[in-house]
Amino acid sequence: MPPTVGIPMAYSEMFLLATITFLPLVFICYFFHNKNGLPTNWPFIGMLLPILWNLNRIQEYLTEILEANHGPFLFEGPWFSSMRMLITSDPGDVHYVMSKNFSNFPKGSEFKRIFSVLGDGIFNADGDLWQFQRQIAHSFIGHDRFRHFLMKTVRQKTEEGLIPILDHAVENGQVLDLQDLFKRLTLDSICFFLTGRDPGCLSIQLEDIPFSKALDGVEEALFFRHCVPESVWQLFRLLNIGEERKMRKGWKILDKFVYELIEKKKKEMQKVMDSTTLGASREDEAVDLMTLPLFRL
Predict the structure, then answer these.
(1) Which residue among 3, 105, 122, 201 is least enclosed by CB atoms within 10 Å?
(2) Is 46 left (phi over 0), alpha (psi -120 to 50) or beta?
């Protein structure tokens, strides 16, 4: 009969090999990591590891980084990616980049390719096109009728949507996911004050909303595009695999949802223009963003 000592010896050799391999890494991580609460810029992987580790609490983690750094922080991603970002919470910095000196901070063609799902709107625009769209957006958003409609929408959705769900949860001892709840409130409010239509995400049943799930998938794909070289996510896109498969499915759902809202709104607006309702409307009447141009003619 062959000896049985070979099995435990094999396990011992594997354990010794693992110890020899990983122990130096443990010492390197201990002696060279930043002890001031800031992420370490490691060779090859950059600062990506702590970001992935804290992905479930990314807002809190970024806040901790800014507090530890006492101001803006330059995040360095992996060597093989273009993931290099300045993180700030200073409103003055945001105003300087996004408004006061925007021409010196163009998004560029790479940004537009990453955020292709946003099309040619204000979020992807640069230069004169951005300035033109910004002026139009300001003129509409600053209109008294739209402000009235916005406040009315938020108050109505809170009183008739959010509070009943919270009351129902208290009465039935139900545990709620507040992040999901406020996301539903945001989606309903945005859709309503843009188009005047309520998609009904905020209900006591809290049913799954395809639009919301598609939005989550698109956000995950956008994050993936930031973490890898463009050639990688373009290959995934060509092969329709991984995160790019999520992007393609989510994009179709978002387009279908938006186009249906626009089509319904166009029919409503045509009826308004064909009737005397437009001329008889009060000057202080609240109105959604898509209808507002009719009242500015």
Answers:
(1) 3
(2) left
How distant is the alpha carbon of residue 253 from its chain centre?
A: 16
The pLDDT of 153-173, averaged and rounded, is 89
* 46 DSSP assignment: B
pTM over 0.85: no
Cβ neighbours of 142 (radius 10 Å): 9
**174 CB contacts (<8 Å, ≥6 apart)?**
168
Pairwise pLDDT comparison (114 vs 209), residue with the higher score: 114
- Residue with the two structure tokens 């951005």: 130
Alpha carbon distance 105, 93 (integer Å): 12
Lookup result for tokens 């204000």: 122
Distance CA(271)–CA(278), nearest Å, equals: 10
Burial of 206 (0-12, 13-18, 19+ CB in 10 A): middle
- The residue length of the chain stands at 297
Is the separation of the CB atoms in 41 and 14 below 8 Å? Answer: no
Cα separation of 182 and 202, whole Å? 9
Residue 254's beta-bridge partner residues?
none
The predicted model gives 73-88 an average pLDDT of: 81
User: Tokens standing for 77?
Assistant: 């991603």
